[in-house]
Amino acid sequence: MSTFMKPLVFLLFCISMQMCSQVKQPQKSNSTEKSKSMENSSTKNNPYYSRTDHTKLNVANSEWKKILSPEVYAVSREAETERPGTGKYNNFDALGEYYCAVCGNHLFRSDSKFSSTCGWPSFFEAEKDGVIYKRDSTYGMERTEVLCKRCDSHLGHVFNDGPPPTGTRFCMNSVSLDFVADNKTAAK
Ligand SMILES: [Zn+2]
Q: What InterPro entries does the database record attribute to this sequence (predicted)?
């Protein structure tokens, strides 16, 4: 009896170990998904992403295409615009910092965000060394495009109909931004 039970117990032990390791895996991918839903960037697979390194990047789009999600790539590298009212930071007023979803460069502070009816997250002021400007005359309009200073990714456009104190309205795509809440920044 006991000689029969021993291998059976061992077998059961093996099966339970197997089940444990199977249970662990979905938990792991769950937490990854959670952090993904908080932020646009997939920092894990992006060797260029850094919130402290300000070195100018010169990375080809063919390389970015392998790293970025299709949504982030379309907006940031091909200057597409997300549909108004759909972005996750449009109606969002938590305190914290906004970074470039492509490279981690600091772009905006929540203090400069204001409620705009245009359908995209809007700011009256950008980080001084965070952005650059480019003339954009596509779609028969004269506009000023806003790009990340570090990685040249498209962020949105800037207009001169914003509120005081600057009168400027940075009209941004949510997908180009990564928000980090104040308490999270302090903890890092
Ligand atoms: Zn960037």
A: Met_Sox_Rdtase_MsrB, Met_Sox_Rdtase_MsrB_dom, Mss4-like_sf
